[in-house]
């Protein structure tokens, strides 16, 4: 149920985002989810792609330092309260959310949330027990 | 054929002078020193006039210590007499010229007679032998071939030893790695920073250098720290040996580490060392730290008398466990002209390197950028993110940079901001790493 996310270090400079994106585009790798976290001096590009093994190899061969992280993707109804329903499940538990990002699906009825938990296995259990749909990478592909 | 990754200290006959009894060495040095001063006095205008000014003649050298009566030679003297002003041999006897990269103005030119090349080869053979190399070793020589003395110096030495030399020169890292792997390389010669770059690149290509037969690296041409050695050895599984030399004296092969890796044995039968106070110029006793001054004892084409190397070290008079009678000098971590003065604080790049290596997961790929804002010196340290130090969490990266800042402050006594940069963005030199960018000059 866990999904592999690739993270790249990026300096906060014009043009620094485009190179890895171009590389993946050229190789026909689809970016399914993407988030750019930035501080004052640098950024971290996080992405979930269609073929992470090949993407990892391509990026590393081009000299990028890529961090592989296991994240959890869940599907929630795309309406007010959709996110808080999920967050409620973690209140009072030992699981921490390191960071998260969201994106709507094409049809607009559901949104996908990507979570980085400190304890992904425990988190998946809590989510499943709470009736939340945890997506596997195949399900992300289909979108 | 996979060789075991351990140093091999087989005795090489060329190394015999390394074990010469000290009284005999002293006699040999004095005889050679007097001949060198005589030759320079007779054939080099600058030497003669400077000695004459002080009322000195070659007969003034009665003991080794008398060399201190003679004035120093500096890099400026080499520039002022550019190109051939310090030659003591006619061009018919000169078989080779080398030149240093002239970062500031004209380069300096050095000359060798046939005999000089033979001496150079012999000290390089002794250097490689001290590092545990021998016939059968496959030596990848990644020092630059050309005007720089590193390439040909190491080449002649490795060939003289009877090893197999791969004259690959610097650059084209992917090819270096392919050759290292496919040719069964057992020893590599390069700058330490370039080798570290090769190890990293190899790992990106899916090659773990620790699994290759390479077992010894002979590294020189730039100052490097003990912590850098530890890192290089851990990442590559080789023994990283320090070699010292400079073109003005002969090139690489002035001093070398032995298996003890505790100081570099100076080939005293060819180079006479003194340690001086860089301010007063006074000779310091063994064991005290100061600037290394070298006098060549057998060079013919270009004898150097009391050349100021700018390298800071100390002589170690104690007998080494390896049995060599040649005195050792402490490995050189800094040069007197490397020193930067930032807001009144003395800073050496080697301190920055040492501080960096204390932080888990960092590599010494760094650059110091100096600038001046509102009349105040600013120092910023660029540090590349590594596979080990990179995290997908902003907080962890911010913690990393403040951790480095803390270490720097602890070592330097100065707070300097650290900027994390993308991997491979700090230029890797194939020769000497450029550690400092000083923008204060233009400001």
What does this protein look like?
The complex is a heterodimer of chains A (143) and B (443). Chain A folds into 2 domains: 2-69, 2-Layer Sandwich (VC0802-like), CATH 3.30.2130.10; 71-141, 2-Layer Sandwich (Alpha-Beta Plaits). Chain A contains 5 helices and 7 strands; from the N terminus they run βαββαβαββαβα. In chain A, strands 1, 2, 3, 4, 5, 6 and 7 form a 7-stranded antiparallel β-sheet that branches. Chain A is of the alpha+beta class and 143 residues long. Chain B has helices at 22-43, 45-53, 75-80, 114-130, 149-161, 173-182, 192-204, 226-236, 349-357, 394-412; strands at 94-99, 109-113, 138-141, 164-166, 187-190, 216-219, 239-246, 251-257, 264-266, 271-276, 290-296, 307-313, 315-316, 328-329, 334-335, 340-342, 345-347, 366-373, 376-384, 418-421, 436-438. In chain B, strands 4-3-5-6-7-8-9-14-13 form a 9-stranded mixed β-sheet, sandwiched between helices. Chain B has a 4-stranded antiparallel β-sheet with strand order 10-11-12-15. In chain B, β5 (187-190), α7 and β6 form a beta-alpha-beta unit. The A-B interface holds A 5, 7, 9-11, 16, 37-39, 41-42, 44, 46, 60-61, 63-65, 67, 69, 98-99, 116 and B 204-205, 385-387, 390-394, 397-398, 401, 419-425.
**In this structure, how is the largest beta sheet of chain B organized?**
9 strands, mixed
* Structural class determined from secondary elements of chain A: alpha+beta
How many H/I helices of chain A? 5
Helix content range of the residues of chain A, please? Answer: 25-40%
CATH class of the largest domain in chain A: Alpha Beta
Largest interface: A-B, 23 and 20 residues
Please identify which CATH superfamily of the largest domain in chain A we are dealing with.
ACT domain
Percent of sequence in beta strands of chain A:
35-45%
What is the C-alpha radius of gyration of chain B, as a whole number of Å?
Answer: 22 Å
Gross CATH architecture of the largest domain in chain A:
2-Layer Sandwich
Main sheet: strand order of chain B: 4-3-5-6-7-8-9-14-13
User: CA-to-CA gap between the ends of chain A?
Assistant: 16 Å
Q: Which regions of chain B have little confidence, pLDDT < 50, spanning 5+ residues? A: 1-8
The number of helices of chain B is 10
Q: What percent of residues of chain B are in strands? A: 15-25%
CATH-assigned homologous superfamily of the largest domain in chain B: ANL, N-terminal domain
CATH topology of the largest domain in chain A: Alpha-Beta Plaits
């Amino acid at each position: 149920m866990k999904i592999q996310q690739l993270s790249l270090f990026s300096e906060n400079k014009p043009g620094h985002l485009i190179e890895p994106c171009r590389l993946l585009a050229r190789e026909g790798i689809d970016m399914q989810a993407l988030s750019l976290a930035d501080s004052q001096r640098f950024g971290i590009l996080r992405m979930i792609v269609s073929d992470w093994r090949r993407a990892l190899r391509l990026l590393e061969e081009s000299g990028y330092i890529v961090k592989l992280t296991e994240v959890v993707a869940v599907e929630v109804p795309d309406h007010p309260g959709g996110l808080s329903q999920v967050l409620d499940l973690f209140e009072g538990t030992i699981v921490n959310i390191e960071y998260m990002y969201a994106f709507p699906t094409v049809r607009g009825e559901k949104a996908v949330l990507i979570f980085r938990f400190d304890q992904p296995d425990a988190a998946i259990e809590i989510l499943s027990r709470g009736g939340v749909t945890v997506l596997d990478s195949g399900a992300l592909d289909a979108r | 054929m996979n060789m075991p990754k351990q140093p091999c200290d087989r005795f090489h006959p060329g190394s015999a002078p390394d074990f010469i009894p000290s009284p005999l060495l002293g006699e040999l040095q004095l005889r050679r020193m007097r001949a060198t001063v005589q030759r320079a006095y007779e054939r080099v205008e600058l030497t003669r006039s400077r000695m004459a000014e002080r009322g000195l003649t070659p007969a003034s050298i009665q003991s080794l210590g008398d060399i201190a009566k003679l004035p120093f030679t500096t890099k400026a003297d080499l520039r002022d007499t550019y190109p051939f002003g310090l030659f003591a041999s006619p061009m018919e006897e000169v078989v080779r010229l080398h030149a240093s990269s002239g970062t500031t103005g004209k380069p300096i030119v050095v000359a060798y007679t046939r005999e000089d090349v033979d001496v150079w080869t012999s000290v390089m053979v002794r250097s490689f032998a001290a590092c545990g190399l021998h016939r059968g070793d496959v030596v990848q020589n990644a020092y630059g071939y050309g005007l720089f003395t590193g390439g040909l110096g190491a080449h002649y030495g490795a060939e003289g030893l009877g090893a197999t030399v791969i004259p690959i020169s610097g650059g084209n890292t992917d090819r270096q790695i392919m050759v290292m792997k496919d040719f069964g390389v057992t020893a590599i010669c390069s700058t330490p920073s370039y080798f570290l770059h090769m190890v990293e690149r190899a790992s990106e290509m899916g090659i773990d250098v620790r699994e290759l037969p390479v077992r010894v690296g002979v590294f020189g041409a730039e100052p490097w720290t003990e912590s850098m050695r530890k890192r290089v050895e851990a990442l590559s599984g080789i023994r990283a040996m320090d070699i010292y030399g400079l073109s003005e004296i002969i090139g690489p092969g002035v001093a070398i580490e032995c298996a003890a890796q505790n100081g570099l044995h100076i080939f005293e039968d060819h180079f006479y060392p003194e340690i001086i106070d860089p301010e007063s110029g006074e000779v310091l006793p063994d064991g005290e730290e100061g600037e290394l001054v070298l006098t060549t004892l057998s060079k013919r084409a270009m004898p150097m008398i009391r050349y100021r190397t700018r390298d800071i070290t100390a002589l170690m008079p104690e007998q080494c466990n390896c049995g060599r009678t040649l005195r050792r000098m402490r490995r050189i971590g800094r040069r007197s002209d490397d020193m930067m003065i930032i807001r009144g604080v003395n800073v050496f790049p080697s301190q920055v390197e040492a501080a960096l290596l204390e932080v888990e997961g960092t590599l010494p790929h760094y650059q110091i950028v100096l600038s001046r804002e509102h009349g105040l010196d600013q120092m910023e340290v660029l540090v590349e993110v590594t596979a080990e130090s990179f995290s997908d969490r902003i907080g962890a990266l911010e913690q990393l940079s403040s951790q480095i800042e803390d270490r720097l402050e602890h070592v330097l006594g100065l707070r300097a901001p650290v900027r994390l940069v993308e991997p491979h963005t700090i230029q890797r030199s194939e020769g000497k790493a450029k550690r400092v960018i000083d923008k204060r000059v233009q400001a």
